[in-house]
C-alpha cells in the first residue's frame, strides 16, 4: 500500500498536477477567474485566501466535484479532464474536505476502502482482508484508530485521519487538505503536521488550504494566494513574511478590518446561572450588560453553538436559569425568549436562518410580522416600507425587495438576518460565527454593525472561533472547553495564548 | 508531539454494520417471539406446525415486496408502485402460460414486465430527477388502470392447470414448508447477502447514507439508485408470481394496498425513510410480526378489520419509539 | 444609498395584481386547461353545455374542499394520506348521527368533529411523537379503513328524509350547485388566509424553514397541528356532502380519494417539501383532473382511464416543474 506510492517521476522538475486558466462562474458570481496552481511531488503547497477568495471552488474542481468553465488540468504534463470525482481519484488526487466525507454508519475500515472493497474469490466483500489492510495502513502511518469502530463514534480529528488513510489506500499522489486544523486542538495539530511530513517524505504532493499564517510558515514549502477569485501570487514561503502574505490575501493590512471600540457597560441584561444541557453544557454562568459585547471562544465541539441555542430557548436545558432584563426565561422556548427580547443570529444561514425561496421582505419581517397585522391581516405596504429602511441603513445590495433571498451574496443575506432582529427590537442578541462564509469587505460591515448594536445599548453575545474577531470586538472574553466555561477575561488581560490555553481546557 | 490522537483510547470494538445480524434485530426477534408466545397462550389453534407454516406461506408474498421496497428506501428513494405491479405481472404470466402451456415462458413474461416497470420507475426518478414518491404514486395509478383496461376488471383464469405452477404457490416441501415461504426466504436471504456482503450492496448503503459523500468517492450514484428500483420491481414480481399461483388466475384487484403494507413492514423492521439505515432481515421480521399478529387475531375470531387497525397502531408506535430513541441519543 | 433598490409601483402592487395571482407556472396550467376545453368542445359538442359545465364543477367541489386544506398542509411540509379513509368513515358518522338524533345540525357537527379529530390525531402523532407524516397517515389510513368496518358492516342508510340534508349535495342556488358554492367560499377564504393574513404567512414560514421559524419565535408544531386539524375538518365538510349525495354513509367510499387530492395539489404547483404553493394552482389542478375525467366519460372512452390519467398528469407536472427549476438554476 504505502510502499506502492509512486516516487516522484524521473523528471522531478515537472509538477504532478498543473491547473491553468481555471475559470468558474456561478449564477451571479464569478468564483474563479483565470486561476493557476501547480503541485510538485514531495512539496506542501499552501493555498491561501480569505473566505470567498475561491479556494473551495478551486479544490472542488480539482476533486472533480465541480466542472470548470474554462482552463486546463495537466497530470504529469498530459492534459486530463476531471468530469466526475471518480476521474480525480483515478488520477491520484484525493481531497480531504473540511466537511468530512465519510459514511457515519460504516466502520473505519469500510470507510477507508469505500471506493474499492477488497473481495474474496466468491466476489463477496472480504471483511478480514479489509480490516487487515486498514490496520497495516495505520501501523505504518502511526495512527491509533480502531478499524472496527463506526465512524460516527469518532472525534473529528480521528475522522480526519480516516480521510487521510483513504488517500493512502488509494496510492494518492496529490492530497488536498481543506482547512484541516479548523476543528483540531493544538496537540492534534502537531500530530497532523507529523503526518503531513511523512506524506511529503513519501513523495506525495500536498495542497494545504488554510488562512492561518502560523501554520503556513510551520509546514509549507510554497504558497499560492487567491483573492476575490483571482490568482495573486505563487512564491516559496521562505520569500514571504506575515506582512507580505496578508497584503497578498487581503490587499491591505488586516488591522484595518477591526474597528477598536470600547463599549460602556450598562445594566445587566442577560443573566445565565448554572446552565446545563443534557448532552453538552455543564454549569455555565455569566452576565452580559447593555452595550457590551461578550465574546465566547471555543474550539469545534466546545459547545459554542449549543450555548447559543440554549440561551435563546431553542434547545432544551436540563438545569440552571436564564433571565433577560430581570425576567426569567420560562417556559424555555423561543416565543418567550423573543418576548423577553433575546434572539439568535445563527451560524448556519441556510439551515437555520433563511427562507431561501422567499423574498427579502418576508425574510426580514419574520419575527415582527404581528406588528404589521391589523385584525389578522398583514399590511404589506407598511411591511415593505419598514424593510426598505433597513436596506438603506445597512446598504444591502439588491435589485428589489421582491428578490428571492437566495440570489443575494452571503454578506447581504447576513445583513438581512441582522435586520430581522433589529426590526423586531431586542434587548440582547446572540450572534454565532457572524462572519462565516462572508467575503472580506462585507466582514468589516458586519463588524461595524455589531459595534453599532452594542453602542445602541444592546447586549451582544458573540460566539466565534476566529481569534482576531474575538480579541478586537469583545469587551470581555469567555472561553468554553468541552461544554464548560474555563475562563473569563477582561479585554485588556486577554491574549491569544491565554485564550487558547483556556480553550484546550 | 503525537500524543493527543495516538494516545486516544481506541473506541471499544463494536459490532459493525455490515454483519448480517445487528443489535436492533434482537429487539425485532424478541417482539416476534412475544407475539407468537402471546397468541400461543391466548388461543387454542395458533400454536400448531400447520398454522405456523401457513402463516409463513401467507407472509411470503409481502416478504418479497418488502425486501424490494426496503432496498429502495435504503438507497434514499421510495417505491410504492409494487401493489399494482403485483396485479400487472400476473397478466403476462397467465396469458402466456395459457397460450403456450409453458411455465418458463410465463415466468419470463412476468419478469420482463417487472423489469420494464422497474426501468420506468428508475428512469423517471433517477435520470429525469422526478421525486420518486410522486413517480411511483403515479405508476401505482397508471399500472392499476392499465390492468383494469386490459382485463375489463375480470380475473383471467389459468386454463392450462400446470402442476408445476400450482405447486409453486400451494405446494409444500416434505408436506410441511410451503414453497412460497422457501422462495421468499431464498429471495430475502439472497438480497440480504447482496446488501451486506457485496460491493454493490455497500454502495447502496453509502448512497443512501450520504449521496454527496458517495459521489465524491467516485460512485455512480444514479446507476446505483436506478438498479435499486429494478431490483425492487423484480422482487415484487416474484411476490406477484407466488400470489398468482395461489389465486390460480390474474386478478385485477390483486395487491391492492400491498404497497402500504410493505412500507409499513419495512419501517417496522427498522428501515429509515431517510436512507442508509436498516436491513432486509429486519424488514422480513417486520413482515412476520405483522403476519403473526394478523393470524393470531383471526384465531381469536376478531373481525379481520382489527388487523388493519392494529397494524396501523403498531406502525405508529414503532416509529414513535424509534424517533424518541434517536432524540435521546 | 438605496440606489439599487427597486421601488417601481408595478412591483409594489404585485400582491394584488393579476400577474401575481397567476405566476408563470400557473400560465402553463391555464394553457393546459384551455387546450383541454377547446379540444373536448371540438370532439364532443355535448361538452360545452351549461349542464355539463355544472356537472364538472359539481364533481370538482368535494375534491377542492379537501384540496385547499391539503395545500396548506403541504405548504407546512407535511402530508395526509388518510383523507380518503377518513372521508368514508366520517360520511358514515354523519348519517348515523342524523339517524339517531334526527338533527341535521348535530349530524354535520359530528362529521366535522370526526374529521377534525382524525386531523388532531395525525397532527399529534406527527408533531409530538415525531413520526414522519407519510408513514403516520398511512397508518391512520389503515386504522380508519379497518375501523369503519368495525363500526358498520354495510352502508348506513338514511332513515330520516330530512329535505335540507339532500339539498346539501343536490340543491342549487340559482344555477349553481350548493357544493360548488361551499367549495368556492372555502377556496376564497383559504386564498385570502394564505396570502394576506398572519396565519398564512406563518404557514409559509414554517414550511420554508422550520428552524428559522422557531428561532423567530414561532412554534412550527402548533402551526402544523392546526394545518392537520383544519384539513381534517374540511374532510368532515366533504363527508357531509358525500353522505348527502349518496343519501347514505358508505364505508367503501373514498378509496383513492387521497391520491386524487394530492395529485391535484401537486399539479397545481405546490411543493412536496413545503414553503411553496397556491390556492389558485390547486383550483386549476382540480379542474384539470376533473375535466379530463369528464372528457373520458363524454367521449365514451373506457372509464378505467380515469385512474391512469391522474397518474400520468402528476408525473408530467413534476417533470415540467423539474425542467423549469433546472432552467432557473442553470
How would you characterize the overall build of this protein?
The complex is a heterotrimer of chains A (505), B (329) and C (330). Helix content of chain A is 33%, strand content 24%. Chain A has helices spanning 55-62, 85-90, 108-112, 127-141, 156-169, 186-201, 213-219, 242-250, 304-311, 334-340, 349-353, 360-365, 380-393, 410-424, 440-455, 467-473, 496-504; strands at residues 17-26, 29-39, 44-48, 70-75, 78-80, 93-96, 174-178, 205-210, 222-227, 230-236, 268-276, 284-289, 293-297, 319-324, 327-328, 342-345, 373-374, 377-378, 428-432, 459-464, 476-481, 484-490. With 329 residues, chain B is mostly helical. Chain B has a two-stranded antiparallel ribbon. A two-stranded antiparallel sheet of chain B has the order 2-3. In chain B, α13 (280-299) runs antiparallel to α14 (305-328). The two termini of chain B are 34 Å apart. Residues 1-21 of chain B have low confidence and may be disordered. Chain C has a domain at 61-256 and 270-278. Chain C is built from 15 helices and four strands. Chain C has helices at residues 9-12, 18-21, 24-43, 50-75, 83-101, 104-127, 133-151, 163-170, 178-196, 198-208, 210-215, 220-246, 257-267, 279-298, 305-329, and strands at 156-157, 172-173, 176-177, 248-249. Chain C has a two-stranded antiparallel sheet. In chain C, a hairpin with a 2-residue loop joins β2 (172-173) and β3. Chain C is globular and about 55 Å long. The two termini of chain C are 31 Å apart. Residues 1-22 of chain C have low confidence and may be disordered. At the A-C interface, α10, α11, β18 and α13 of A face α10 and α11 of C.
Strand content of chain B: under 5%
- Strands across the major sheet of chain C, in which order? 1-4
Order of helices and strands of chain C: HHHHHHHEHEEHHHHEHHH
For the sheet with most strands of chain B, the description reads:
2 strands, antiparallel
Number of domains of chain B: 1
- What is the CA-atom radius of gyration of chain C, in angstroms? 20 Å
Overall form of chain B: globular
Amino acid at each position: 500500500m504505502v510502499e506502492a506510492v509512486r516516487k516522484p517521476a524521473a523528471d522531478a522538475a515537472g509538477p504532478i498536477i498543473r491547473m491553468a486558466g481555471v475559470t468558474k462562474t456561478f449564477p451571479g458570481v464569478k468564483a474563479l477567474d483565470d486561476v493557476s496552481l501547480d503541485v510538485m511531488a514531495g512539496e506542501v503547497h499552501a493555498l491561501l485566501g480569505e473566505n470567498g477568495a475561491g479556494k473551495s471552488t478551486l479544490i472542488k474542481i480539482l476533486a472533480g466535484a465541480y466542472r470548470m468553465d474554462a482552463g486546463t488540468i495537466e497530470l504529469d504534463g498530459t492534459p486530463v479532464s476531471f468530469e466526475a470525482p471518480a476521474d480525480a481519484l483515478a488520477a491520484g488526487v484525493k481531497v480531504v474536505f473540511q466537511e468530512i466525507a465519510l459514511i457515519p454508519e460504516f466502520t473505519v475500515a469500510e470507510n477507508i476502502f469505500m471506493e474499492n472493497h477488497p473481495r474474496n474469490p466468491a466476489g463477496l466483500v472480504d471483511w478480514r482482508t479489509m480490516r487487515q489492510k486498514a490496520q497495516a495502513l495505520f501501523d505504518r502511518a502511526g495512527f491509533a484508530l480502531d478499524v472496527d469502530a463506526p465512524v460516527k463514534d469518532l472525534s473529528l480529528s480521528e475522522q480526519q485521519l480516516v480521510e487521510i488513510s483513504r488517500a493512502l489506500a488509494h496510492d494518492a499522489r496529490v492530497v488536498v487538505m481543506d482547512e484541516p486544523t479548523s476543528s483540531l486542538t493544538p496537540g492534534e495539530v502537531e500530530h497532523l503536521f507529523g503526518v503531513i511530513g511523512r506524506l511529503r517524505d513519501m513523495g506525495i504532493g500536498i495542497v494545504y488550504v488554510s488562512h492561518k499564517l502560523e501554520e503556513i510558515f510551520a509546514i509549507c514549502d510554497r504558497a499560492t494566494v487567491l483573492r476575490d477569485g483571482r490568482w495573486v501570487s505563487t512564491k516559496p514561503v521562505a520569500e514571504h513574511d506575515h506582512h507580505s502574505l496578508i497584503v497578498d490575501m487581503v490587499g491591505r493590512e488586516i488591522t484595518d478590518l477591526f474597528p477598536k471600540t470600547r463599549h460602556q457597560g450598562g445594566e445587566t441584561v442577560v443573566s445565565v446561572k448554572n446552565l446545563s444541557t443534557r448532552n453538552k453544557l455543564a454549569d455555565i454562568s455569566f452576565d452580559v450588560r447593555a452595550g457590551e459585547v461578550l465574546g465566547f471562544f471555543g474550539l469545534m465541539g466546545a459547545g459554542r453553538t449549543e450555548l447559543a441555542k440554549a440561551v435563546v430557548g431553542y434547545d432544551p436545558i436540563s438545569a440552571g436559569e436564564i433571565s433577560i432584563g430581570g425576567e426569567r426565561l420560562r417556559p424555555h422556548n423561543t416565543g418567550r425568549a423573543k418576548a423577553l427580547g433575546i434572539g439568535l443570529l445563527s451560524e448556519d444561514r441556510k439551515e437555520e436562518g433563511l427562507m431561501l425561496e422567499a423574498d427579502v421582505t418576508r425574510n426580514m419581517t419574520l419575527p415582527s410580522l404581528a406588528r404589521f397585522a391589523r385584525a389578522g391581516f398583514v399590511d404589506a405596504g407598511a411591511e415593505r416600507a419598514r424593510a426598505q429602511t433597513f436596506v438603506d441603513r445597512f446598504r444591502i445590495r439588491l435589485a428589489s425587495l421582491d428578490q428571492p433571498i437566495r440570489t443575494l451574496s452571503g454578506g447581504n443575506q447576513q445583513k438581512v438576518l441582522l435586520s430581522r432582529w433589529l426590526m423586531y427590537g431586542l434587548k440582547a442578541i446572540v450572534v454565532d460565527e457572524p462572519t462565516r462564509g462572508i467575503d472580506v469587505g462585507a466582514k468589516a460591515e458586519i463588524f461595524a454593525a455589531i459595534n453599532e448594536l452594542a453602542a445602541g445599548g444592546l447586549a451582544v453575545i458573540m460566539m466565534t472561533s476566529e481569534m482576531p474577531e474575538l480579541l478586537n470586538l469583545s469587551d470581555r472574553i469567555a472561553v468554553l472547553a468541552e461544554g464548560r466555561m474555563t475562563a473569563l477575561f477582561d479585554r485588556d488581560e486577554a491574549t491569544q495564548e491565554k485564550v487558547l490555553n483556556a480553550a484546550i481546557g | 508531539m503525537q500524543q493527543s490522537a495516538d494516545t486516544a483510547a481506541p473506541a471499544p470494538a463494536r459490532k459493525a454494520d455490515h454483519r448480517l445480524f445487528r443489535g436492533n434485530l434482537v429487539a425485532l426477534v424478541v417482539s416476534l417471539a412475544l407475539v407468537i408466545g402471546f397468541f400461543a397462550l391466548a388461543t387454542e389453534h395458533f400454536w400448531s406446525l400447520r398454522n405456523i407454516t401457513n402463516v409463513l406461506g401467507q407472509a411470503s408474498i409481502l416478504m418479497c415486496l418488502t425486501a424490494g421496497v426496503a432496498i429502495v428506501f435504503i438507497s434514499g428513494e421510495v417505491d410504492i408502485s409494487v401493489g399494482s405491479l403485483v396485479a400487472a405481472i400476473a397478466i403476462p404470466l397467465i396469458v402466456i402460460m395459457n397460450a403456450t402451456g409453458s411455465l418458463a415462458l410465463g415466468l419470463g413474461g412476468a419478469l420482463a414486465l417487472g423489469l420494464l416497470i422497474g426501468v420506468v420507475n428508475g428512469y423517471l426518478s433517477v435520470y429525469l430527477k422526478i421525486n420518486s414518491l410522486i413517480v411511483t404514486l403515479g405508476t401505482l395509478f397508471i399500472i392499476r388502470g392499465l390492468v383494469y383496461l386490459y382485463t375489463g376488471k375480470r380475473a383471467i383464469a389459468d386454463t392450462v392447470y400446470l402442476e408445476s405452477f400450482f405447486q409453486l404457490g400451494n405446494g409444500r416441501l416434505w408436506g410441511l414448508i410451503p414453497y412460497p415461504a422457501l422462495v421468499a426466504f431464498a429471495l430475502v436471504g439472497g438480497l440480504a447477502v447482496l446488501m451486506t456482503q457485496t460491493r454493490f450492496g455497500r454502495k447502496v448503503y453509502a448512497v443512501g447514507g450520504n449521496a454527496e459523500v458517495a459521489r465524491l468517492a467516485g460512485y455512480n450514484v444514479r446507476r446505483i439508485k436506478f438498479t435499486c428500483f429494478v431490483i425492487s420491481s423484480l422482487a415484487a414480481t416474484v411476490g406477484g408470481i407466488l400470489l398468482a399461483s395461489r389465486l390460480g388466475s390474474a386478478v385485477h384487484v390483486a395487491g391492492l394496498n400491498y404497497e402500504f403494507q410493505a412500507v409499513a413492514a419495512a419501517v417496522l423492521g427498522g428501515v429509515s425513510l431517510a436512507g442508509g439505515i436498516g436491513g432486509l432481515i429486519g424488514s422480513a421480521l417486520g413482515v412476520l410480526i405483522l403476519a403473526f399478529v394478523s393470524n393470531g387475531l383471526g384465531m381469536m375470531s376478531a373481525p379481520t378489520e382489527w388487523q388493519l387497525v392494529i397494524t396501523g397502531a403498531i406502525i405508529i408506535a414503532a416509529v414513535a419509539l424509534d424517533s424518541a430513541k434517536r432524540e435521546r441519543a | 444609498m438605496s440606489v439599487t433598490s427597486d421601488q417601481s409601483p408595478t412591483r409594489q402592487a404585485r400582491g394584488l395584481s393579476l400577474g401575481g395571482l397567476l405566476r408563470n407556472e400557473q400560465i402553463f396550467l391555464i394553457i393546459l386547461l384551455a387546450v383541454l376545453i377547446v379540444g373536448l368542445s371540438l370532439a364532443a359538442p355535448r361538452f360545452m353545455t351549461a349542464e355539463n359545465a355544472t356537472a364538472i364543477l359539481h364533481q370538482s367541489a368535494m375534491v377542492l374542499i379537501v384540496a385547499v386544506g391539503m395545500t396548506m398542509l403541504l405548504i407546512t411540509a407535511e402530508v395526509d394520506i388518510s383523507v380518503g379513509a377518513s372521508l368514508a368513515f366520517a360520511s358514515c358518522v354523519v348519517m348515523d348521527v342524523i339517524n339517531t338524533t334526527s338533527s341535521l345540525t348535530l349530524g354535520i357537527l359530528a362529521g366535522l368533529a370526526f374529521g377534525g379529530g382524525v386531523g388532531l390525531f395525525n397532527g399529534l402523532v406527527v408533531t409530538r411523537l415525531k413520526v414522519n407524516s407519510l408513514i403516520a397517515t398511512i397508518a391512520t389510513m389503515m386504522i380508519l379503513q379497518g375501523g369503519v368496518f368495525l363500526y358498520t358492516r354495510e352502508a348506513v342508510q338514511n332513515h330520516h328524509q330530512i329535505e335540507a340534508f339532500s339539498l346539501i349535495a343536490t340543491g342549487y342556488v340559482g344555477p349553481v350547485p350548493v357544493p360548488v358554492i361551499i367549495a368556492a367560499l372555502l377556496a376564497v377564504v383559504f386564498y385570502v388566509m394564505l396570502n394576506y393574513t398572519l396565519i398564512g404567512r406563518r404557514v409559509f414560514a414554517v414550511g420554508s424553514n422550520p428552524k428559522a421559524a422557531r428561532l423567530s419565535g414561532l412554534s412550527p408544531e402548533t402551526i402544523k397541528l392546526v394545518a392537520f386539524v383544519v384539513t381534517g375538518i374540511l374532510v368532515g365538510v366533504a363527508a357531509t356532502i358525500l353522505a348527502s349525495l349518496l343519501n347514505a354513509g358508505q364505508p367503501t367510499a373514498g378509496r383513492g380519494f387521497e391520491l386524487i387530492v394530492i395529485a391535484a395539489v401537486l399539479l397545481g404547483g405546490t411543493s412536496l417539501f413545503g414553503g411553496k404553493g397556491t390556492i389558485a394552482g390547486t383550483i386549476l389542478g382540480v379542474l384539470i383532473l376533473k375535466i379530463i375525467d369528464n372528457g373520458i366519460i363524454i367521449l365514451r372512452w373506457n372509464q378505467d382511464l380515469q385512474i391512469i390519467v391522474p397518474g400520468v398528469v402528476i408525473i408530467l407536472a413534476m417533470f415540467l416543474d423539474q425542467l423549469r427549476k433546472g432552467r432557473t438554476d442553470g
